[in-house]
Amino acid sequence: xxxxxxxxxxxxxxxxxxxxxxxxxxxxxxxxIVKTNKSWQYNIxxxxxxxxxxxxxxxxxxxxxxxxxxxxxxxxxxLEFNKIFDKSLISIKFKYPFFFxxxxxxxxxxxxxxxxxxxxxxxxxxxxxxxxxxxxRVLYHDGIDSTxxxxxxxxxxxxxxxxxxxxxxYTNKSWKIFTGVQPEHEASQNCIDIIHPEDKGIFSDLLIxxxxxxxxxxxxxxxxxxxxEYIWFLVNFVSTEDKSGVLATCTDINELVSTKKFLxxxxxxxxxxxxxxxxxxxxSIMDTKGNFKYVNYNFCKISQFSKxxxxxxxxxxxxxxxxxxxIESVFNNLLLTGSVWKSELKNKAKDGSVFWLDLxxxxxxxxxxxxxxxxxxGYDITTRKIAEIELLNSNNLLExxxxxxxxxxxxxxLQNNKISLTNEVYNILHIEKSAIIDLSFIINLFKPDFxxxxxxxxxxxxxxxxxxxELQINNNKQNHIWIRCIGKPIYENGExxxxxxxxxxxxxxxxxxxxxxxxxxxxxxxxxxLLQFSYIxxxxxxxxxANILGLTSILNITDGSPENIKTLKYLEKAAIxxxxxxxxxxxxxxxxxxxxxxxDIDLNxxxxxxxxxxETNINESKVTITCDFELQKNxxxxxxxxxxxxxxxxxxxxxxxxxxxxxxxxxxxSIVGDFTKxxxxxxxxxxxxxxxxxxxxxxxxxxxxxxxxxxxxxFIIKTQIEAMGGYIELHSKLGEGSEFCVFIPNTLNINxxxx
Amino acid sequence: xxxxxxxxxDDPISNYILENLxxxxxxxxxxxxxxxTDNGLKFMRENKENILxxxxxxxxxxxxxxxxxxxxxNDNLITYPVxxxxxxxxxxxxxxxxxxxxxxxxxxxxxxxxxxxxILTVHDILK
Lengths: 755, 127
Fold this sequence. Notes:
The complex is a heterodimer of chains A (about 750) and B (about 130). Chain A has 25 helices and 27 strands. Chain A is an alpha+beta fold. A 5-stranded antiparallel beta sheet of chain A has the order 2-1-5-4-3, sandwiched between helices. In chain A, strands 7-6-10-9-8 form a 5-stranded antiparallel beta sheet, with helices on both faces. The longest helix of chain A has about 50 residues, at about 505-555. Chain A is elongated. Chain A starts with a helix and ends in a 10-residue tail after the last strand. Chain B has about 130 residues and is an alpha/beta fold. Helix content of chain B is about 40%, strand content about 20%. In chain B, helix 1 links the parallel strand 1 (about 5-10) and strand 2 (about 30-35). The interface of A and B includes residues 534, 543, 549, 551 and 554 of A.
């Protein structure tokens, strides 16, 4: 009581008073009852058999006076009440008399001072210490009589009296209904019989220790009802005044006990759930700033951080990544809305490796609704996610492969009639992307040859046989689409659940065949023409040129007029040029036509023979030729080509020497990757490679005006080098010199590529 | 009895050039030019013993130089050196020449003074 009062002045709140088991009335300093609680109203004021009057608005002491014949007692009480208001006494106990069946009975009451600070008024609170116990004891004061019986039969609580032999000497109406024991058997009944076996021990102990003294005791006991069910009761024991027995009042607390039990079970299962969750889930708790307050073992394990490294750190330590949102703004939004957030989230562990979580974050609020922390529960989905990404990639790959090879794919699921097409199918069949692909669409598509496809599918369903058929397609646009359709069943648990079929555009394949044939015919024709041309060059063109040359040699050029002599000289020169051109042309044509033998060729030998051919020119121009074939002495290729390359490059170098200095040529071989490199370096005129660029090795290109080159040399050797599977490079600076680098493959692999 | 240097070539200009060269160098024998294979073959049969040297062109209408050589191969008709004279620079022709062991050399037109002088010297038919 005191505790309640001192703790909270709001004790006067009716709701609080009502919730108390005590019977309470509040009296102001004038002695008027100003407030009563429900217990008071039920147990004291409204008992119809008793004199009432202890209601709100009445003078408590006057009611006492009218009920009590002993005026001294009244005066004593008035004095004691005054002492309380004077604060010389804190509380008093007194008996409050009332009439019951024209006899005086007493309530045992306690009066306590209550100071209501806000009103600065003194109130007295009257309480009846315990619901019935003291009353019953008071009532029992005179032994079991009709008054006691009437009173106890009126209450819901079970009331019984035991003698020292533990025999029931009295039971009330509620008890009789509860136990279902017939009144005639009651006398022989031992109260212990209806107590739950587990509770019998403490019951006996209590009786031995405390009973038949003035002490009161309380305990929870299970008592058996008429249906043989045990019900929990709070039992108050008090010995009778003559100590001949024990009076017990039992209040049904079964609901309370079962609620407690339920709560305990709930708590148990909750802790089990938590344990289970802890085992499988990745759990963390963050404060409102996003710093970790708690992380479980799984969280540490997957993130590779220790508990100490994580607690107090911001959650971004794991670099969470969302493809289309900023994780921190998501978090801030949660803080505002208090909603639950769920997502798959990519994170980084301490060593930088990636892990994926299926994450749920729930803000947790206190009783007033303010978010205090965030609970995050996640599951490791890394394996699934990686598999998903790989699947996506392989799907992409499949699509791309299909596009590259012009092969589409159709799948049909028998269970849900779902049809899937790869992108390439849309291209091949000229279907619009927006088309709704359902069964009727597909049936319409295959309409022209549906019987054929139907037969194939029927056979596949019956025997599991795959099919390979050519079908005409109706796409409502073009009638001439033909596809090759290679299909097979899809099995699931040994049952055919659908079909998979490739779609190959055979019209374009056919068109391609025609195109290829046309092209090869074309080539064949051109090749024949070329052969013919090469024959004409070698014979028909060559013969008259040879004749002109022969004729000019017969003519004595010293004869005749100077004009004739000059003309004849030019004629001879023109014939010589024409002859050279025809020879070159013949060379070019024979490169294309002839498959020549490959042999091992000594580079030094080739150089010596080339020098001997060009001996006159070399001596005339005082050319110095040096060579170094140490790194690669031989090449395995076509001799006449190598000879031609040496001859052309050396004679070119001599032709385009610089007039201010003596020509020096250095030839050197080395190995570069799969190729033998032969470098021809001179200090001649050089070529403006930037200016001529692509024209360098073209037919009839000349880069110097002062020498009569026909310009076929470089074109010829380039053609010859390429025929051998090699290539040629030129490094040159105008006025300084040139370096031609010839690369010839070391092996006969046609797939040689430039390093 | 006269000994002959025989030239079989359908091209009269070519024949003229070769005759002219031989005459310039000088020989005591007669140079005979024939411009078709029929007459050439006839002359070869009739004067088998009296031919000293044959200059044979390859590309002729009706019968090519090769055909002619094939025809007379089994008759032991040729007991004298044969020089193929051609304006052809085709490699295939060169390869074919090597198959005829009777052929002394392959001369590509225009034939030069020095070449003929060497041939006449080798066979000792200079003047």
